[in-house]
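Troubleshooting log. The previous structure file for this entry was overwritten by mistake, so regenerating from the original sequence record. Sequence copied from the archived sheet and checked twice against the printout by T.R.
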Amino acid sequence: MTELSSATGDPRVAVIVCLDFGDAGYEDGIEEIVRLVESAGVVRQRVVRGKRQRPDPKLFCGSGKCAEIARAAEELNAGYVVFNHELSPAQERNLEREIKRPVMDRTEVILEIFAQRAQTSEGKLQVELARLEHLSTRLVRGWTHLERQRGGLGKTGGPGEKQIELDRRYIGQRVRLLRGKLEQLRRRREVQRRARARGEVLSVSLVGYTNAGKSTLFNALTQSRAYAADKLFATLDTTTRRIWLPGSGSVVVSDTVGFIRDLPHSLVAAFRATLEETVRADLLLHVVDAASSVREQQVEQVNKVLAEIGAHGVPQVMVWNKIDLAQLEPGVERDEYGKILRVRVSARTGAGLGELRTAITEAARARTADGGKPAPEALFLQPH
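Regenerated output below.
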């Protein structure tokens, strides 16, 4: 991986370990972790599969599977071994000792991608905070031999302050500093939000599973050129544009970071200031990859993260994107009471964008009819 140094093997090559514990979506999980490591800079990989009833307390995968992983890493000259699972610090340390290569779990891969992709100063601060908080749980690794001896005047004395304690204190100080800076940015954003609220401007946020096409849809709606690519977490930093819609006036549209299964809690916490754009929005456009075979599970994961950040009560319009790949027709679907179920669009071809603008206009009218406050019960389904 591009930003890490591997003492052994090629850093662009990885062995990926995926164990089946009987959970649904095992095959889809393999496809996702492969895309994740490719997004982090790996160009060649091999997947090692296995089946277990429960994780091994010491090596997670068991001694026999660990030996198989070590052989695969040696044959491939892999720089890393990546587990599509959450590893404890002790398991990670034991695996590195047996495999003789750096071992990363799913959380560390996602943190690495975020570190590579952050562009704005706020995004970099958020990623650094998440990485430091994750690192603080793993400081027990390999530091026990580093002790600074205390004593003088011919006396040996006992062991002094250990390196791990110095590192822990440094991380604590840095975390406090980063949180202070992010709090300043949060307050600044709050002032901007109040100004928009006074101007009665509708605030719309795009949310969705990573690679659902949010940034492409954002560009199509706002006539912008924000970065968009067919990769996981192509964009991290929130981008906001103001557009004008006939019948609704000025609307502020924000594109936020995509979500993913088992998104690390440290990342959710670090990006809470950015995600407040989602919490405070008047309307969420929940973008779904209509061509995905696991779209329902992805919707469930997004709603899970929205609940975690306190945005589960914000009204949603479900936007089925990529209908050109799913071979669906553009249009708006409503229930028997006239509530919008979903809008079918293709951000790439532009099909259905007119219907989506109509849906946003209806949201603006409902908000105006309710005295400037959103009226979700009038037109939009609440997220489950």
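The mean pLDDT is 81. Archived copy saved in two places this time.
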